[in-house]
Amino acid sequence: MHALRTTPGLGRLAFLILLGCVACACGTSSAASSRSIVALGDSVPHGQNCSCTPYPELSAGGLSKSTGKSVKATNDSVSGYTSANVLAQLKDNTNVIDHVRASDAIEIEIGANDVGYNKSCGTTVSCYTPHMPALKENLAAIVKRVKELTAGHKALVVLLDYWSVWLGGSYAKAHGDSYVAAAEEMTDQVDTAIKNAAKQSGSAYVDLRAAFKGPNYSYDETHYLSSDGDHPNAAGHQKIADATESVIEKRLGLG
Fold it and tell me: CATH classification of 34-251 is 3.40.50.1110, yes or no?
């Protein structure tokens, strides 16, 4: 990012089966009445610079409505986090570990801060690309660790990418063509790494660049951005939540 991301009936039954179990499978109707989502990542899922409900909580609310069951979100994302920070959380933070162990779905959005814009590198893409191998390794390790923690039950890992890892929309254009070109290139590298991590691990993937910028990535996403040009506004968080819910439904064969 420019600045650090500081931090219809059968379908419903299928969703409930994936998120844990129905009463007859788990033994109690109360256990099946509430499911959980855990969010990990940086300041985007954390909701920075937006006096609004962040997308993890919005997606839980949307899934509650579509399934008729309570789906709650625990937001363990932290502003400013890199992929190394999230991996450390999953290894050392007992609260986060407990949350993930008990979760039915884990939404992860991380990577922008690994290649955050800085004045030293400016718009020289080759100055940022040396950070990509570590990001790719960390993404694989993050998903592996989540699967280890949830090995005792069925859980869905959802990886989300970025519309831009630096400033977006008109905010990026204000910095000139070279900035826009570099931002697009670094976004492509990070998003490709996230998409590949999802494919290789069998995780679900949410294409936020398509959600914000259209199928050809050609739309201007400014109307989804908050005043810093870096983070989503309320409409942006709702857009991410909608896209996440849609991917979950498709992953379950409902789309």
Answer: yes
